[in-house]
Design a protein that fits this description.
Blueprint: H1 2-25, H2 35-46, H3 49-66, H4 70-90, H5 96-112
Helix pairs in contact: 1-3, 1-5, 3-4, 4-5
Length: 124
């Protein structure tokens, strides 16, 4: 199970590294979008929020690949993955398999690191 965890962590790190860097360098062409999906992406670009998201993706991917601060990186990536998942489910269904794959990997890694999160749920 540890080998599977390491493999999932590396795959997730590589995915976020590639797509994070792509957010700045645009070496993977973005498919044309219409309607609400295009409006959503346009708002992210206009507000510059997309650059913050891509920066977080890059930093967390490096953390996952170096096996440092993995639990913290998973927490930072959770809302990003959740939004990727819902974006593809409701606005761009063609990308739904990637969203499902990412959320599955996130849940698996969160579960495997669950001991790290116990202090977050302690009442004082």
């Amino acid at each position: 199970m540890k080998k599977l965890q390491k493999l999932v962590q590396i795959i997730m790190g590589l995915i976020f590294l590639i797509f994070g860097v792509n957010g700045f360098l645009h070496f993977i062409p973005m498919p044309p979008m219409t309607g609400t999906a295009a409006s959503f992406i346009e708002i992210l670009l206009i507000s510059k929020l997309l650059y913050l998201i891509k920066s977080i993706e890059i930093l967390c991917s490096i953390s996952l690949l170096l096996n440092r601060y993995v639990s913290f990186s998973l927490l930072l990536l959770a809302p990003i993955i959740f939004n990727i998942f819902w974006f593809h489910i409701f606005l761009e269904p063609e990308g739904a398999p990637l969203g499902i794959f990412l959320i599955t990997m996130e849940i698996f890694l969160l579960w495997r690191n669950k001991k790290s999160y116990h202090p977050l749920f302690k009442s004082k």
